[in-house]
Amino acid sequence: MRIYAEVEDQVNKELDLLAIEKGSNKKQLILEAIDLYLHQDRSELDQTIKDRDQARSDADQRWRELTQARSELNQIKRDLETARSREDQLRSEVNEARSSQDQASAEAAILRHEVDSLKDAMSMKNDEISFLRAMIHQLTEKITPALPPSEEEIRAKHWWQFWRRG
């Protein structure tokens, strides 16, 4: 029975060279190759196929893990950017708070100065009021004898009648 197969030119040339080396022909070489293929121990080939399939499975698993790791990395990068943005925002708020604090400190210093000035002014006014009270007290002591007598005294002493009220 005949079996036909097309082979590439390179394979055909290699068959010719091998046939010349062995002192045989192409037909004999092809028959030996088919016989060897049919009667060879397939366990090694099967093991190689299993190893290849396992390697593909492992490679696919690593690819999925790599893809997941990249996805997690991208999420971490986004989280990092969010955290940096939040950090910048908080730094800005801290700077604003410091600026407000500095402004409030300056205003407090001005207000303390004004309070001290007002205290000094009040102290001077209090001293002036004390001085005026002392003067009024001295004047009251001097003027009191010149005041008209009380109603009882006027009745008791008739010579004070010109002081009597209307």
List its traits.
single chain; 166 residues; mainly alpha; 2 domains; 4 helices
Task: Note down, in words, how this protein is organized.
The model has no long low-confidence stretch (mean pLDDT 87). This protein is mainly alpha-helical. It folds into two domains: 8-40; 41-143. It has helices at 9-22, 26-39, 42-143, 151-156.
Query: Describe the biggest sheet?
Result: none
Shape: rod-shaped
Tally of discrete structural domains: 2
The low-confidence parts are none
Give, in order, the helices and strands.
Answer: HHHH
In which range does the helix fraction lie? Answer: over 70%
**Secondary structural class:** mainly alpha
Mean pLDDT: 87
What is the tally of beta strands?
A: 0
For the CA atoms, what is the radius of gyration? 61 Å
Strand content: under 5%
Total number of helical segments?
A: 4
* Assembly annotation: single chain
- End-to-end separation: 170 Å
Secondary structure layout:
Elements: H1 9-22, H2 26-39, H3 42-143, H4 151-156
Gist of the model:
The chain is mostly helical and 166 residues long.
